[in-house]
Amino acid sequence: MTTDSSKALTFGIFPGMTGSEQLGLGGGPPHDPERTAEALEALQPPGRPLLVRNYVIYTGKGEGVDATPGDLCRYARDGRRIDHVLCYATEDGDLDDWAAFVRQALREHGPLLESLQIAEEPNNPDFQRGGNGGFPRVREAIVAGVLAAREEVDRLGLDVRIGFNACPSFDPAEGFWPAMGKLGGRSFRDALGYVGLDFFPDVFRPIPFESLATAVDGLLRHFRATSLPAAGIGPDVPIRVTENGWPTGPGRTAETQAAVLETVVRAIAAVAGRLNVTHYEFFCLRDGHSANPDLWTQFGLVRDDYARKPAFEAYRRLVAELSA
User: What is the dihedral sign for C-alpha 175, 99, 18, 286?
Assistant: First the structure.
């Protein structure tokens, strides 16, 4: 692949809210499984796949908490499969227990899974913003988790891709990617089915709308050409966009959210062939609390009463047009 080209993508979405859906973040109404399932059905084109992203937080001693959205069997049907994320949030650093937890997740949910992600944003130390990078031995946990998952998938004969993800990093002194290369080695790289990228352009740092497509293009190229090679990860390992979104709220209109979503997805599709980008997953389906001005509560394609924003229809059209 020597020139840029569009490429069909596999699409997905996190069907919960920003945070634990059981809690009703920020005072909003609780998660409604039936209306969530209806929205997923509306987004999924007939005969096409749609991934449902799910999170569970490992806290040590074999424990996993705050599974969101939780009931995987409810959503893994009609061609939908689960992208299961095992977040690493423990202070004890017991990698044997962690590896056992990874294996158990595959034994319990394996037939429902399309993919298993080991840890969440391990180069981000801010746990309140989703990062696992502040916990002891998290980099070693990625290697141990990927290798354990690969062995368990092969033992059980499952069709599950194994990977990990990160958020953008442009500081060569940060050292995450070279460290992963030294820790992992050949067996780790061979076990990888993908590497994911979480990114939220024009959310935490403003980007002019007219520059948005160029920024997305540059970010993906940097990830492929600089970050991954620093860990010895070659172009044959696919990139997945595992989280991307843009919230509504004060100064952020629902119409702009739809325009940003369309611009970002089309920019990704335009370079997907050259950069071996295979998946895009939107974060997230529903607002946590649509009346709360905090941007963390309004990332959804629908409001907290499940009324659809313009971005819902925009995403539905994009999935129908560009999905594999």
Answer: positive
Q: What is the mean pLDDT of each run of 10 residues along the chain (324 residues)?
A: 67 82 62 95 96 97 94 94 98 98 98 98 93 97 98 98 95 81 96 98 96 98 96 98 97 98 98 98 95 91 97 98 95
Closest CA relative to residue 48, chosen from 76, 80, 75, 74: 80
Residue 36: other Cβ atoms inside 10 A = 21
Q: CA 321 to CA 324: how far, in whole Å?
A: 9
Which residue has 């049907």 as its token pair?
77
Q: Where are the domains of the chain?
A: 10-322
| pLDDT at residue number 1 | 33
Determine the 3-state secondary structure of 163 from DSSP.
strand
The yes or no reply on domain 10-322 and CATH 3.30.70.20 is no
**Coil, strand or helix at 55:** strand
> Strand, coil or helix: what is 221?
helix
Helix or strand holding residue 243 (H, E): strand 239-244
What sign results for the dihedral spanned by CA atoms 106, 111, 117, 120?
A: negative
In angstroms, rounded to a whole number, what is the distance separating the alpha carbons of residues 322 and 203?
Answer: 25
**Separation of CA 277 from chain center:** 13
With a threshold of 0.90, does the pTM exceed it? yes
